[in-house]
Design brief:
By secondary structure, this protein is mostly helical. Helix content is about 60%, strand content about 0%. It has a single domain, classed as Transmembrane di-heme cytochromes, Chain C (Fumarate Reductase Cytochrome B subunit, Up-down Bundle). Bound molecules: protoporphyrin IX containing FE (HEM).
Length: about 280
């Protein structure tokens, strides 16, 4: 373990005394296995899905207008989409408010969590720390609003599937247990940090046995496992959506996907210019 984690945490699975399988050790080993499996499934699953998105042909020009006419314009459109949720803002102000509160809150919370995985903690992660307090509330308020909308609005309730509720409830569970640890039932965060830095170094230390922490990190592992097969794949998927990423130049160039190049040529009097 890197120097500087302010405690002497020795691994129950190493040292001269041999392996002692106490309850705490079993829990620590279980969570270690869970996190290794969850990390592999997350990386391989998302990687595979992104590979498939990238290879899916987009046979038609379908940018949602008004659409940019150049590549640079598309880059700006994507930046506005990712940073401001522009198209959501145009279509529904309430979902935008709740969606933005949730996503932006979660971003700050996740940046704040980097302190559990780095030693020494990066300077900019230290700067983020105080904002994390408000971010946790923003995240919960956003998630609560999105869930309420699904339950209260009949039109949305009708099209909601169990997985829509599951993702919201899982995220509320993670944020809720996090806030409980912060404000009500504190856990030993130095030991939490030692445990996760240990895992990064393939060493299993002792995880604090506080039930709230175990529910918090257990739910995180579950989220990592189902992420690649869930609607949360909209995050990487956005970058492969032809309706947002295509240049609106159908009048200037003939749009071709690879397999269409093998089709018979157009009649001679129709001028063909290839898209650059
Ligand atoms: C393995 C990964 C994670 C670990 C080890 C972890 C651990 C913790 C701990 C120890 C706290 C209490 C902080 C304190 O007492 O000051 C906390 C709080 C919190 N966690 Fe996590 N967490 C993890 C992942 C996540 C994820 C993925 C989310 C969100 C999707 C999340 C959301 C929160 C929130 C909202 C809080 C309360 C606000 C805050 O302290 O920032 N956690 N987490």
């Amino acid at each position: 373990m890197p120097a500087g984690v302010e405690a002497d945490f020795r691994s129950p699975f190493s040292g001269g005394g041999g392996l002692v399988l106490g309850r705490k050790n079993v829990i620590s080993a279980f969570y270690a296995g869970l996190f290794y499996i969850a990390s592999i499934l997350l990386v391989v699953g998302v990687g595979y899905k992104v590979f498939r998105y990238a290879r899916t042909p987009a046979p038609l020009k379908i940018p949602v207008s008004p659409a940019p006419r150049t590549r640079t314009g598309v880059v700006f459109r994507m930046v506005r989409e990712v940073v401001l949720f522009e198209s959501l803002f145009k279509s529904n102000k309430w979902i935008w408010v709740f969606g933005y509160l949730f996503h932006f809150g979660m971003l700050v919370v996740l940046l704040r969590h980097l302190r559990y995985f780095t030693q020494p903690v990066w300077w900019w992660v230290e700067i983020v720390q105080p904002f994390g307090i408000y971010a946790g509330f923003a995240m919960l308020a956003g998630l609560g609003g999105l869930l309420l909308r699904r339950i209260v609005q009949e039109r949305i309730r009708y099209i909601s599937s169990p997985s829509d509720y599951l993702m919201l409830i899982l995220l509320i569970g993670i944020a809720g247990t996090g806030m409980l640890m912060k404000y009500v039932e504190h856990t030993d965060i130095v030991q939490v940090k030692a445990y996760f830095i240990g895992l990064l170094n393939f060493q299993i230390l002792e995880i604090p046995s506080s039930p709230i922490l175990l529910i918090h990190v257990g739910s995180v592992a579950l989220l990592m496992i189902i992420f690649p097969v869930s609607k949360l794949m909209h995050a990487p998927g956005l970058f492969f959506a032809p309706s947002r990423t295509q240049v609106d130049n159908a009048r200037e160039f003939r749009h071709e996907v690879k397999w269409a190049r093998n089709l018979p040529p157009l009649p001679e009097d129709i001028e063909q210019k290839k898209e650059g």
